[in-house]
Design brief:
Layout lengths: L1 E2 L6 E2 L6 H4 L9 H5 L14 E2 L3 E5 L2 H5 L3 E2 L3 E11 L5 E7 L6 H24 L6 E5 L2 E4 L11 E6 L5 E2 L12 H16 L4 E4 L2 E4 L3 E4 L3 E4 L10 H11 L27 E3 L13 E3 L1
Parallel strand pairs: 3-8, 8-14
Antiparallel strand pairs: 1-2, 4-6, 5-6, 6-7, 7-10, 9-10, 11-13, 12-15, 13-14, 16-17
């Protein structure tokens, strides 16, 4: 690892050109600083790409909670409506983990952590004005069922705004639906995330809905060098595998960096792939890996 003299990030050797790395510590500039678009460089500022609850209360029927309309890799999803606040009357969803899938505390913490990182990346992507619509991220909050909720009283869930016409654009193993322009845009966002982070992260598993003036995403996955984002974070091998499937399109920029050692370590599937931390990866299909 070496600190870039321009942006101050501590980055791996793969984030530097051979010429810059040869200059030694204290003099090397990462590829993002040398070749990047000015807006590619991280900048301070508040996130403006979030889609928030901006409400304080919601209602869910027992029918909706007992028969979730959707499910993810390790969570159930039920539909309800906001009853107090700016979004009062609008639809929302509650998400809770499946018994035995993950520890509740880890689920909430890592889910929100991934959303925070996704917001940071998407905010910077929006500043590039590559597309004429904003990309938004649903920002969940931990809410608790009140004492009138019978057997669910005290249970924590994640609540966020409902997304219409939900669809998946890419996965965390490199699968992508590029049959429409927005699928290509999502691939560009994933590529950009690697570039802007100096090879530290890949934002992927992008899914959500297309609206008139924006696209809203939910449940993002972050692949990271240190596997800091839970069971869906496939680590360095996941980053390599993702880029083995990536083909740059009209929304990618030619100066955006890519890993030099891309390889199809994971099978590209539409579902979200998970890997337990306790099992080491293997070149073919890592032990402890399963698909949803």
């Amino acid at each position: 690892m070496r600190e870039c003299v321009s942006c101050g990030r501590n980055l791996p050797r793969s984030s530097y050109t051979a010429n810059q790395f040869s200059k030694g510590p204290g003099q090397s500039r990462c590829a993002g600083c040398v070749h990047g678009h000015p807006a590619d460089i991280p900048s301070a500022g508040e996130f403006d790409s979030g889609r928030y609850n901006i409400s304080h209360r919601a209602s869910f029927t027992n029918q909706a909670l007992n028969n979730p309309f959707s499910q993810g890799a390790f969570r159930w999803v039920a539909k309800g409506s906001y009853t107090l606040g700016t979004r009062s009357g609008q639809a929302c969803v509650a998400k809770w983990f499946k018994t035995g899938a993950v520890f509740e505390a880890d689920y909430f913490t890592l889910d929100i952590k991934a959303v925070d990182k996704a917001l940071e990346i998407v905010n910077r992507f929006n500043k590039l004005n590559i597309v004429n619509k904003a990309v938004k991220i649903n920002v969940p909050a931990v809410w608790t069922f009140d004492e009138n909720s019978e057997e669910r009283a005290g249970q924590n869930v994640l609540v966020e705004p409902f997304i219409q016409n939900y669809q998946k654009f890419n996965s965390n193993t490199g699968w992508a639906d590029e049959s429409m322009a927005w699928g290509e845009v999502m691939q560009a966002i994933s590529h950009f995330s690697y570039h802007v982070s100096g090879g530290q992260f890949v934002l992927c598993d992008l899914q959500g809905g297309i609206y008139q003036h924006e696209v809203v995403l939910s449940d993002p996955v972050i692949l990271s060098r240190n596997r800091d984002y839970g069971v869906t974070d496939l680590g360095p091998d996941g980053i390599r595998s993702f880029f083995s499937q990536h083909r740059c399109n009209n929304y990618c920029r030619s100066n955006w960096t890519k890993p030099m050692n891309a390889a199809p370590i994971f099978r590209p599937v539409a579902g979200t792939t998970m890997m337990r931390h306790s099992v080491p990866t293997r070149p073919s299909r890592p032990g402890g890996t399963y698909y949803s």
